[in-house]
Structure formats: structure tokens, C-alpha cells
């Protein structure tokens, strides 16, 4: 293992160890909110633009994942239809509402909004829309990053009901390339996926106590086809991506 590879692993592991302690209380709060939603047959939406959208894909139809999650996936806000234009999209006012309206969000639902920078128009408008509907808003964001670049703009951390501060530095990348002024090794995706999966594991554990944990199995596991099909039939009416 090279020095920079070792440094990346060590940096990420150190951050996760810190977040396990620092986020213990807000993660418990989020788990409680999601539990209430699940017990009321509500949905948990996950939204992000650019690379943050990967958190939405992570929870969708996932082995070991909860079936009441709904990813918000719109090509123009992701990367595969044009990375440059997706950056324009996430900064443009007024585009998120029609995107979210097709998902049928309801009062009592929950939306997890991932935005590392926390200042772009799309995540802020998603939070505003959710609040209008009567849904709870959870933010996964870097407070340090958004504070450094806000310049008077609203910040996701200011409008969410519960904030999960990933503790990352402005710019995301955590390793310096000596003599270049460049930084490499982004960690927001790895951190975000870890946090969200830990919360959902807690929720599933609590739901399992009453025998009501709607968890997908890996397609190659015995009995997976039958179990997963039942979950899809139940949750497809409110999840356009199943």
C-alpha cells in the first residue's frame, strides 16, 4: 500500500470513528422519525443532485435495505445525461418542484436530502417543498462547507428539521498533492452511505422486534424471489422506480 493510499484509508476511517460518536444523538433522532413514518405506512424519500444522488441509489431495492425507501432519480439532476449541465440544473431556481410532484409525497413522509455543499437551489427547494407537503426533512451536509461558501444564501442546514453534519472540509477532497495545490480523495459519498445505512439498520432492528421489517434479500439468496416480489407489490404504488 502506498503512502497516499494508506493516508486515504486512515483519513476516512478516522472520520467515520469521529462521526460514530458525534452523530450518535442526531442519528438516533432520525431513526425515531423514520420509525414513526414506517409504522404509519409512510415513505422515506432520498434526494440528491450530482454525486449526492448516489445515496438515493444506494437505498433503492437494496439487499439488506428497507422497502419503504423511495429514491428521487431524475436524469438531468444526476451525471449520466451530462455532468456539466447537471451542475447548472442544481443551481437553477424553480426546477425541483415539478420533479418532486410526480412522486406523490404525503404528510408524514420523510425526505433525506444529501448535499455536501448545502447551498445549491435544488436541495433548498426540495426542503421547502417537503415542508409545504408536511413531510420531515433530514439533511446530510457539511456545515463547514456551506458556511464557507454561502455568501448570504440560504443553507440546507438552516432549513432541515434534523441535520447530520458530515464534518467534511470545503471541497470534499481530503488529501493534498504535495507541491501542486491540488487535493484528491473525496469522501462525502463513503461517509454519507455509511451514515444512511447505519440509520436504516437501526430502524430495521426496531421494526424486526414486532416482526414487521420490510427488508429486501439479495436476489441470489434462498427465498429471495418470493420475499422481494411481495415487497415490490406492496410498495410499488408509491415508488415509480420499482
Automatic annotation (TrEMBL):
Ranges for domain SIS: 30-209
Matches recorded under Gene3D superfamilies: Glucose-6-phosphate isomerase like protein, domain 1
GO terms under biological process: carbohydrate derivative metabolic process
Superkingdom classification of source: Bacteria
GO molecular function: carbohydrate derivative binding
InterPro entries, alphabetized: RpiR-like_SIS, SIS_dom, SIS_dom_sf, SIS_GmhA/DiaA_subfam
Pfam families the record matches: SIS_2
Signal peptide stretch: none
Name used for this protein in its record: Putative phosphosugar-binding protein
Species: Rhizobium lentis
Amino acid at each position: 500500500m502506498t503512502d497516499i493510499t494508506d493516508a486515504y484509508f486512515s483519513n476516512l476511517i478516522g472520520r467515520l470513528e469521529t462521526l460514530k460518536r458525534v452523530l450518535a444523538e442526531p442519528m438516533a433522532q432520525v431513526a425515531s422519525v423514520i420509525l414513526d413514518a414506517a409504522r404509519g405506512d409512510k415513505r422515506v424519500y432520498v434526494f440528491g443532485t450530482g454525486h449526492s444522488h448516489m445515496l438515493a441509489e444506494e437505498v433503492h431495492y437494496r439487499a439488506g435495505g428497507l422497502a419503504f425507501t423511495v429514491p428521487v432519480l431524475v436524469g438531468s439532476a444526476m451525471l449520466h445525461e451530462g455532468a456539466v449541465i447537471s451542475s447548472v440544473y442544481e443551481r437553477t431556481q424553480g426546477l425541483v418542484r415539478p420533479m418532486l410532484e410526480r412522486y406523490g409525497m404525503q404528510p408524514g413522509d420523510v425526505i433525506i436530502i444529501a448535499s455536501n455543499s448545502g447551498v445549491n437551489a435544488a436541495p433548498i427547494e426540495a426542503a421547502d417543498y417537503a415542508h409545504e407537503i408536511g413531510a420531515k426533512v433530514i439533511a446530510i451536509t457539511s456545515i463547514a462547507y456551506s458556511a464557507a461558501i454561502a455568501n448570504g444564501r440560504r443553507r440546507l442546514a438552516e432549513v432541515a428539521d434534523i441535520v447530520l453534519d458530515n464534518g467534511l472540509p470545503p471541497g470534499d477532497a481530503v488529501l493534498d498533492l504535495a507541491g501542486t495545490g491540488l487535493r484528491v480523495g473525496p469522501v462525502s459519498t463513503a461517509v454519507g452511505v455509511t451514515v444512511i445505512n447505519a440509520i436504516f439498520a437501526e430502524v430495521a432492528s426496531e421494526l424486526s422486534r414486532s416482526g414487521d421489517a420490510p427488508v429486501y434479500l439479495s436476489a441470489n439468496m434462498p427465498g429471495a424471489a418470493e420475499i422481494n416480489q411481495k415487497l415490490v407489490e406492496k410498495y410499488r404504488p408509491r415508488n415509480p422506480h420499482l
